[in-house]
Specification:
Rossmann fold; Cobalt-precorrin-4 Transmethylase, domain 1; 10 helices; 4-stranded parallel β-sheet; binds iron/sulfur cluster; 3 domains; 280 residues; alpha/beta
């Protein structure tokens, strides 16, 4: 069995940075908290908890706890509330997400309605929306774009959630740009996502089967899986080695592997070892 691991497999820059910042923080501060998941991967969260980082669901009045802001960023109100409640804030927001915040705020200050191409419930999208004074429109699909109240939108600014599928985003943008007279647009899909998406468009065609490794909570992993599945019906999404079914490997001679942006290398190596064991 030939196992072809994507060059871009593993943590993206922003996730690696957030993990490093959080671990450094635990070495320097006693009571470290993360609001929700610092990244979307259960193994990473477990590792953080083992290192003393406690996950909290809501902010509470406290004396000097340290709050790490996740890689996907948070809304301005979370920062304000956390400060008012006495947290010491360590911001692990990915710089590329910060850049999206800046662009959205800048376009808003030009009097534009902000449109975010992305998933309504995703932390990053909520964080972008929460940077603005005016209400942003969130558009996950071309169908949703058609339902925008275009009569009220004469001047708009568009940003994209960093891990969106480029083709989907371009389709949405075409719909919006044909209906909004004054439109400014920034393609804010980040470089690591682009590389992963370019690779996943080739891997399923070059291999008999494909395995995508990542948490069910990871939107970018879902996206990679969806792209792979369209190109190769033998595409499978696993969270860990134990999820692999021996029948997936029957009658194939090559398997391509990639991972979501928050999948640890250790999980990938366990998956590879299990494939080798099953094929031995
Ligand atoms: S996917 Fe891109 S924007 Fe998101 S954390 Fe990783 S590098 Fe940053």
């Amino acid at each position: 069995m030939k196992i072809n691991l994507a060059k871009s497999a593993g943590f993206c820059f922003g996730v690696r940075r957030a993990i490093t910042i959080t671990l450094k923080t635990t070495a320097q501060h006693k009571d470290v908290r993360m609001l929700g998941d610092i990244v979307h991967n259960e193994d990473v969260i477990a590792m953080m908890e083992k290192n003393g980082v406690k996950k909290i669901r809501t902010l509470r009045k406290n004396r000097g706890q340290t709050l790490v802001i996740r890689a996907h960023g948070s809304s301005a109100s979370v920062f304000r509330r956390a400060r008012a409640l006495g947290y010491c804030i360590v911001d692990a927001t990915c710089p590329m997400v910060k850049e999206i915040h800046k662009m959205a705020r800048q376009m808003e200050s030009e009097g534009r309605r902000i449109i975010i191409i992305g998933d309504k419930k995703h932390d990053e999208v909520r964080g972008i929306k929460g940077q603005l004074k005016t209400k942003a429109f969130i558009v996950p699909s071309a169908g949703a774009a058609l339902r925008l109240p275009f009569r009220r939108i004469k001047k708009a600014g568009v940003v994209i959630q960093s891990t969106q599928d480029e083709e989907n985003a371009r389709g949405i943008l075409r719909t919006i740009s044909s209906r909004v007279p004054d439109l400014k647009f920034f393609n804010t899909i980040c470089a690591p996502t682009r590389v992963k998406q370019t690779e996943i468009k080739a891997i399923p065609l070059k291999n008999d089967a494909v395995i995508i490794i990542g948490s069910r909570a990871s939107a970018n992993t879902r996206r990679l899986f969806e792209i792979a599945k369209k190109l190769n019906p033998r595409a499978y999404w696993v969270q860990r080695a134990g999820d692999i079914r021996p029948r997936w490997l029957k009658g194939i001679s090559s398997i391509g592997i990639t991972t979501g942006a928050s999948t640890p290398d250790a999980t990938t190596q366990e998956v590879i070892a299990r494939i080798r064991t099953l094929c031995a």
